[in-house]
Amino acid sequence: MFKESNRSHGLESFIAPESEQNSQAQIKVSIQSNVAHINLRGKIKHRPFLEHMETVLDQKLPVKPNTTNFENHSIFWLGPDEWLILCPLSEATKLVKDLQGSGGSMHAAVNDVSGGQIALRLDGNHVRDVLAKGCTLDLHPSVFGQGMCAQSNLAKANVLISMGHEPHAFDLIVRRSFSDYLLHWLKVAAAEYTTEWSES
Amino acid sequence: MLLIKCPWCGARAETEFSYGGEADIKRPEAPDKLSDKEWADYLFMRKNPRGTHRELWNHSQGCRRWFGAERNTVTYQIADIFTLSEDSG
Amino acid sequence: MQPNRLKTGGRINRSKPLNFFFNGKAFKGYEGDTLASALLANDVKLVGRSFKLRRPRGIVGSGAEEPNSIMQVDKGAMAQPNVRATQVLLHDGLIAKSTRGWPSLRFDIGFMLDVFSSIFSAGFYYKTFMHPRPFWKYYERFIRKSAGFGKAPEHSDPETYEHRNAHCDVLVAGGGPAGLMAALTAASSGARVLLADDQTEFGGSLLNTATHVNSKPGSEWVRQTVSALSKLDNVTLLNRSTVFGYHDHNFLTIVQESDDHVRQREWRVRAKQVILSQGAFERPLVFCNNDRPGIMQASAVSTYINRYAVCPGERAIIFTNNDSAYQTALDLKRAGATVAAVVDSRKKGGGSYAAAVEQAGIPLLYGHLITNVSGQNHITKAHIAKWDGDNDAIIENSIKIPCDLIAMSGGWSAAVHLHSQAGGQNQWDHNLCSFVPGAISQQTISAGAGNGKWALEDCLQDGHDAGMSAAKRCGLQPIASEQLPAVSEIHTTPIEPLWRVPATVDPDRCPKQFLDFQNDTCVSDIRLAVREGYRNVEHVKRYTALGFGTDQGKLGNINGMAVLAETLGKPLEDVGTTTFRPPYTPVSFGACAGESVGSLYDPVRKTAMHDLHRSAGAKFENVGQWHRPWYFPKRGESLDAAVARECLKTRQSVGILDASTLGKIDVQGPDAVKFLERIYTHNVGNMSVGRCAYGIMLGEDGMVMDDGVMARIDDQHFYLTTTTGGAAAVLSWLELWLQTEWPELDVFLTSVTDHYSTIAVSGPNSMKLIEKIGCDIPLTSDQFPFMSIRNAHLNRIPVQLFRVSFSGELAFEINIDSNYAAGMWEVLIDAGQEFDITPYGTEAMHVLRAEKGFIIVGQDTDGSVTPVDLRMNWMLSKDKDFIGKRSLSRPDSLRDDRKQLVGLLSNDGKTVLLEGAQLVEDPAASIPIPMCGHVSSSYMSSCLGHPIALALVAGGHSRIGQSLYASSGEKSFVPVTITNPIFYDKKNELQNV
User: Fold this and answer.
1) What is the pLDDT of residue C118?
2) CB contact under 8 A, B9 and A150
């Protein structure tokens, strides 16, 4: 009777049409729209919590501050009792249900926050230079390397910055309502470089 | 701009934090048993020292944890950072 | 034709001539020139007029200390006001204008001020123009114009600026011999080193003097060192970069003049260790008419000769109290000028430089002073007298020697600015006649001339040692130099202080002896200030304007303080310095703002439906950082007409509102009830699963802090909304209680503000609309009563559906994953066509809620309003404690004249009151009229056909029916009647349908 409610991250206007993509660009920005974001809270001292979560996830929770674990899903340390889990969109509903387990005795909170966050990947030799224009973190490779993550500010937006396994690729996660601002800022900050904006 | 060492995330710029005022102010167990003056002391009176000040900070742009700092209000040097309960991590 | 340009030497590029204009006249200079060196090369003597007395002024210095050559550079949007010609790099086509000298430099209307200068003494402005006070605005216009500040650019700046955050182990501020040595040494440890220098080229004094290093010109050692540093990956070299601020915890700010894609870049550096090596400033000598064009710092004269191949005079006299100016005599001689004499205030001298001067055949006059000069727009003669060292003597019997240049040196002051900004103490060194850096609590090491090491050999050693210490303090292993660069051994005679030359007549009546050139502060002004009772250096500074200018007293402050000390009869160290604050030199607003200009000035937060609202023609308003639809005008519709229509349509059929900006918090855990009971005033435990409640939270002071809807999703699972503006603060405040006061509670708070978009559908047809798009749960009140929550699917999309109402109508709020929100909004709009669905904005939302007497926290409350003041006593549980409860029984909370929330109606039924208007009982009362409250919300209610208002009125609850007057602009009042604040559907029946 009515059209399907289309899924949309609202940033379509930033993405260049296929014909204008520039694979030689110095900086490649891609919006990662096919991932679900799951927020997990719980106390690691509470053994049943840890056992349950690690069984469901089939990997360890990164308990060391500012670290990640990408063995199965991408898991980011957010705080001493808080993590972010990224998983394929199609697996999200089941994963949330499994993580929530059988009810209240778990001393945990699991929230699907996919609607509230935008994930971006920035790739290129000059990404550090661009980020340094708006981020007070020390992003020198000797300090902030692969497998690390940190919540901080980029320009005037709160972001989770992390590095996966590629040497020049940074992942950013920003609150949805700030994403339009942040992408505008990135456009300005990266203006001295050639850029490619895409979605994956 | 201060450099504040979050007990969890490490040293970060002051812009990631928000200030929470004097530390060590315990909420009275039974407020209704207190005189108006005692309640007002809890509510309003602060030490505001020149020198060492124990105060609360929140890593609001980071891990969202509250913690304490012992900061010199003259030199702004932070001598100590402390967590607020053993359960907080 | 550049008459003062030397044929050879200097660091200018003679193959790149550049054209420029000064005050409308065309000149030529070379690449590598500063505007100042190019002006001097062209023999331009007069560059401006002084601030107060309008006296003619020439270039005095060669760097940041320059007080006189303050220029307006370039035109239109590119104009830069108030820059120092000594720090402007010449470019082709540059247009410069004196900022002072109106209507023209040669004939200055303000010159009369000098003629009557005796009335323009210290405190003149305070004494003359401050009374009568209301006249200041007229005085100011005149003073500003004749003071000749530069003009702000006329259009917005077309250039871009950027910020750059950086981290390093060692930041070296100043790239002279000490700084280069320090950087080289620190870098040998592998430390991340950042070296910043304000000049185009590194090297500092080594490029300004004829000094040799390793038996070669100093510039050769500079070239080798910079080349070595630039090859290191761990070293960042920033030239044309002034470290202008040293803030807490080794955070420093640098402004870089840039040639690349931005005009300027502000570096924001966090350094583990800082080495301050900015050198020293040469002090002027204080004699009568010492401000005349042609009188310069000796070191500046040397700099112009050695660095820019410009000899600023043909017949020079050196006036000094120390040995360094002897080098200038030799430089001048080498440049082909006549040096008529070296006038030295000391009784005797001797040493390496004195020997060289004598060998060059330059007359050396020990125990002599320059007391005065002849010439107005340019000096023609120096008046020289013998002196026996008596400060109180009246000097007579001057001989007059013709000259066109006086190179003066009153000794050197270490540049302790950054050290002082960092909180460091300064101590007075009697031997050096300078403040030198003392104790400091930050991780800072001063080195070189900035640390009181005047001799090159000592500078290099000090820089080396500082580099070693800094690297070691970082936990690194620097490599010590086996041998420092070799410089020839220099013997000198110590400086003897000469803070002011004794006057030719009475010191208060003799021709002016200038201390601060830019602000025309003279010896007599300091003496007057003391006579009038000023003692503290900070007060004297403000009374006499000493050190107030763009140069911030870099040239004149120490002399001024010494004269103050002498007048007070105190040692200089007891008088102390004024406070040094950032910026070290003026910084443009563009550099401070960086990228945060225009649409990036502040983040604009957008909801998932933002673009749809824009397409629908919405006008937006800022709510915090959010941009929210304010109203949705149809073609040609005014705000009032649109809001009236939106309200009526909503109450008659159905309206739709984007309420996504509400703060949303997910609360889970076994102790959720226990926690929320302590936070909210109502009985949380009594709520059954699936029910909602309106909740308020108080500060511990009992005042309403925030409000919202609370929903019980499960036994241990709640969902809260907060006000749009309070979202972040409330979450942080809840975490504060949880983490500090009640860590034993097992509760987790998660923000879901951005995850859920909220669509409010209000009006009698709202239920039909929800049913129409396909809802998988029953919506009737018996199954889904008012104030409940259900999980449901709308149009097959999972949502949280709330039966709540902020309009008083039958209404639903839909919480939906933001990725699907825009789609859902479109579906609702399409389906709603048959009901004439009306999107409404924040303005209509405010009207609808005010008609119902619903408050907005922050509009109808202001942090001083208790729930009792709002007549929310029914929400205050008697069975439990909660935050703020105890404060409600404080005597102040029980006063019966507290401001309380009431409704107001204009007696004429037409006038919409002004929000914020004060309420009075008797408008005829004498001024100040006692006030008894204010209007907090006021709107035209289209549904009721008359205006309505909410107000906070002293003792208002017991004054229903009484009359008051609301101010409605200047001296006019509107009679109003106090009413109950619920104007529409007083029995609250509609929302329960």
Assistant:
1) 60
2) yes
